[in-house]
Each structure stands twice: as C-alpha cells, then as structure tokens.
Design goal:
The chain has 309 residues and is of the alpha+beta class. The chain has helices at 2-15, 36-39, 61-76, 91-96, 102-110, 119-123, 127-133, 145-154, 159-187, 190-212, 219-226, 233-244, 252-272, 283-292, 297-301; strands at residues 28-31, 56-59, 81-82, 85-86, 98-101, 137-140. Strands 5-2-1-6 form a 4-stranded mixed beta sheet, with helices on both faces. Strands 3-4 form a two-stranded antiparallel ribbon. Strand 3 and strand 4 form a beta hairpin. Helix 9 (159-187) runs antiparallel to helix 13, helix 10 crosses helix 11 and helix 10 packs parallel to helix 13 (252-272). The longest helix has 29 residues, at 159-187. The chain is elongated, with a radius of gyration of 23 Å. The two termini are 28 Å apart. The model has no long low-confidence stretch (mean pLDDT 95).
Length: 309
C-alpha cells in the first residue's frame, strides 16, 4: 500500500499532463480491490506474482467515454520501475489496476450500476465481494463519487439483511457442527466429519464477521481478518483450535467441546444484541428466533438457510 501510494505521488503530475490536467478533478486514486496488498496482507511470499508499484484510477463513465483511452495511454507510459520494484504486466494486474470507471468497478462486485436500493439487492451481494469492494485505501478523491459509494457500502448491510444472514449461518452451524459432526464421529466417518467440520467453521466465521458488522473476505484470508475484530475473540480462538485438531477418535470429545464453547459464546452475543430471544444451547431455535424479527416480507418468506454468502 505504501509503495503504491508513493508511486502515485511520484508520477501523478506526469499522468495528468499533456491536456489531461482537468481530468484530475474527476479522478479518484487508490488501491482497492482484489489481491492481498489491498487487504494489507502482502508479505515476501506475495511478491512472486502481481506485485509492484501500481495503483487504481477511477473516473465517472461519462468522463471515461471521452478521455479514457488517452488516460490509459498516459498510465501505460509511467515508469516501468520504481524504488527497485518492477511494475507487473500480468493479465491479472492489467485488469485489477490502472484506469477504471467508478460505475464499472462497483458493478463488478455488486452486480448493479447503482448503490443497493433495497434489501433484496443488498442480500444478493456476497460478503466476500463487498469485502473486496471496500478494502484498501483511497489516496485522493476530489470529485467524491467513488468515496460516496464506498462509504455507503462500508455502512454495512441493513438490519433485516444482517438478520437473514445470521439466521442462515446459525442454523448451518447447528446442522453441521452440533448435529452432523458429532454423528459422523460416532460412526467413525472421518471424511464426512471433516466436511461437516469445514461447513461449521465457515458458518461460524461468517457469524463472527456479521456480529462485528464487517464483511468476511475470501476464505484464505478469513482467519487473518478475524484477528482484527473486537467481538467474539474467544470464539475465533476456539475455531482455530478446532481446525488444528485432526478428525479422529482421540480428538472427537475435545472437538465437540470446542463446538459447544463456540456456540455458547455466539448464543450469548445474539441475545445480548437482541437478535434472539430463544433459550438453550442448540443454535437452530436461535436461527428461527432471528428470522421472526425480520420486517421485510420478501426476506422473511425465504427458507431459513437461504443466503448468498
């Protein structure tokens, strides 16, 4: 991130020269989108591909139609190296960095040209896509349109959408972890136990992010990102312990204890935040209780486990 911002500051005068000066007033610059560098997770290993001093420029569609080609040519003509780093020329980098439209960038991750207008549009956008659309940093945005959309998405899902996703994930936790994982272990079906455990972990991570009102990123960064969250930290620690234990007869009791510990903490948080009024440790009734609090008729009519991610 620091490398990209420094490169932008170094070459922005060159980028917006030669008759393109007025475009700077419409251009947002930053590093947002796909790649570990946008999440702040890049390291030495990350440098083996798509790594370098590149950045994003977002301009309104109407401005791009008039001057996009010229601005792209100016971006391509920027120095090939900076501070000893080579700019990447891979196809992925060419798609993820450079000149883009504001509308096109957000449509790529939300599926719509406008900001989500109702609960149905919000519900259909997976957490992982919203995480990508709102990560990273904006270096400058004099026009403000990119930042306006960004801040709208960062304000998080509407309350009814949070409820629907929580309901789906808590019931999935009950089904995969509290019920099926235990039964698979009793039968000695360790391959099925592995799959049930994986479904439980994914659902539990999603619940932790939802209750922190943060979008859960792509699966390989989900545990990395959970370290920055402030609530349900003990549940996250227990999830890591659960994952690290082999699915076997010698670990079955310990893994069941971890499942119940994770579920207990989530139940307490659901009740504390007013999402559930149900009693007991089994999560399925809590999912139904969460569903009953949804005001939107369309969301409330869906199957309790329906979710887009």
């Amino acid at each position: 991130m620091e490398l990209s911002q420094s490169f932008y500051e170094f070459c922005k005068e060159q980028l917006f020269a030669g008759g393109l000066e007025e475009l700077r007033g419409y251009a947002a610059a930053g590093l947002v989108g796909e790649g570990s560098e946008c999440f702040g997770y890049d390291d030495d290993i990350s440098q083996d591909h798509d790594f370098g001093p590149d950045f994003c420029i977002w301009i309104p569609e109407r401005i791009y139609q008039e001057n996009g080609g010229r601005l792209e040519a100016a971006y391509d003509a920027l120095p090939e190296t900076y501070r000893g780093y080579q700019r990447s020329s891979s196809r992925q980098t060419l798609i993820r960095r450079g000149i883009m439209t504001v509308e096109g960038f957000y449509r790529k991750y939300t599926g719509i040209l406008h900001i989500p207008a109702d609960t149905k549009e919000w519900f259909q956008i997976p957490q992982g896509f919203l995480s990508v659309a709102t990560n990273g940093a904006v270096f400058e945005d004099p026009y403000g349109e990119f930042t306006r959309r960004r801040e709208y998405l960062l304000a998080y899902y509407p309350e009814d959408v949070i409820r629907k996703k929580l309901a789906a994930k808590t019931v999935a936790m009950a089904q995969a972890g509290q019920y099926n994982y235990v039964r698979c272990c009793r039968r000695g079906e360790w391959e099925s136990a592995y799959l049930a455990g994986g479904e439980f972990v994914r659902a539990a991570l999603s619940v932790i992010y939802l209750l922190n009102k943060k979008y859960m990123p792509f699966y390989k960064w989900a545990f990395r990102g959970v370290e920055t969250l402030t609530e349900l930290r003990n549940a996250a620690v227990d999830l890591k312990a659960f994952v690290r234990l082999e699915d076997s007869s010698k670990n079955a009791v310990q893994k069941r204890i971890l499942i119940e510990s994770i579920c207990d903490e989530i139940v307490c948080e659901l009740r504390k935040k007013g999402y559930s009024t149900s009693n007991g440790d089994f999560l399925e009734p809590h999912g139904n209780s969460i569903m009953s609090g949804i005001q939107d008729d369309w969301l409330r009519s869906l199957h309790v486990m329906a979710d887009y991610g």
